[in-house]
Design a protein that fits this description.
Helix content: 25-40%
Largest sheet: 4 strands, parallel
Number of domains: 1
Strand content: 5-15%
CATH topology: Alkaline Phosphatase, subunit A
Radius of gyration: 17 Å
CATH architecture: 3-Layer(aba) Sandwich
CATH superfamily: Alkaline Phosphatase, subunit A
Order of helices and strands: HEHHHHEEEEHEHH
Number of helices: 8
Number of strands: 6
């Protein structure tokens, strides 16, 4: 089983080996309800996450960043478009990101980037779990995702057809394996990977964890 620590380690190592000065590798790891102060780079003594610390040290550590909207879909639309949610046309949950809106993934693809999306999309309406056709993926080629679902066990995801693929075991673990598969694909091109795990992952784990265990995540 590949851990989320392995995912971050592979991303950090791949970034050092394949990065070109004008085209850096881009990795978005989007977690629900994770405050920026709860990171090693922010000085949190309770979280020992060496690969997160390495990504901050060798990548871009943005200390003055803020969410554009405290709700899921509008915030996602802002991150992908670089616009405020009202300008991107997404002001509530379960809204469809207008197809005419430009996105960073669509811009990076013709610039020579490999693009991949793993996890929850939540910009294609209210379908549960929701197959997202290739023409609505905004420039992402590698796709192992679903529109929206909140199941840690017994969940599914989709590739290029509307046939659901079961995600065995604990969903975030399997999604991590898929993300690592993308990072390890042989290529000299820079990558842009957007990895979005499901809601309330850490909370589920904490119910069975002791404080020393939590500090090793």
């Amino acid at each position: 089983m590949i851990s989320r620590r392995t995912l971050l380690g592979v991303a950090a190592t791949t970034g050092v080996q394949a990065q070109r000065p004008t085209q850096p590798n881009l990795l978005f790891v989007v977690a629900d309800a994770w405050r920026g102060v709860a990171l090693p780079s922010a000085g949190d003594p309770n979280l020992r996450a060496p690969n997160l610390a390495r990504l901050a040290r060798e990548g871009a550590d943005c200390r003055r960043t803020y969410t554009s909207y405290p709700v899921c879909c509008p915030s996602r639309a802002a991150m992908l478009t670089g616009k405020f949610p009202h300008a991107a046309g997404v002001t509530r949950n379960h809204a469809l990101l207008p197809l005419a809106q430009p996105t960073m993934s669509a811009a990076l693809k013709p610039a020579g980037y490999r693009t991949g999306y793993v996890g929850e999309w939540h910009l294609d309406g209210a379908e549960h779990p929701g197959f997202v056709p290739p023409d609505r993926r905004r420039g992402f080629d590698y796709w192992a995702a679903y529109n929206v679902q909140h199941q840690h066990f017994g969940s599914v995801y989709f590739r290029d057809t509307p046939v659901p693929i079961p995600a065995p075991g604990f969903e975030p673990d399997h999604l991590t394996e898929l993300a690592v598969d993308f990072l390890r694909q042989p290529s000299r091109a820079p990558f842009f990977l957007y990895y979005r795990s499901s809601h309330r992952t850490l909370r589920l784990r904490l119910r069975r964890a002791t404080l020393p265990t939590i500090r090793r995540l």
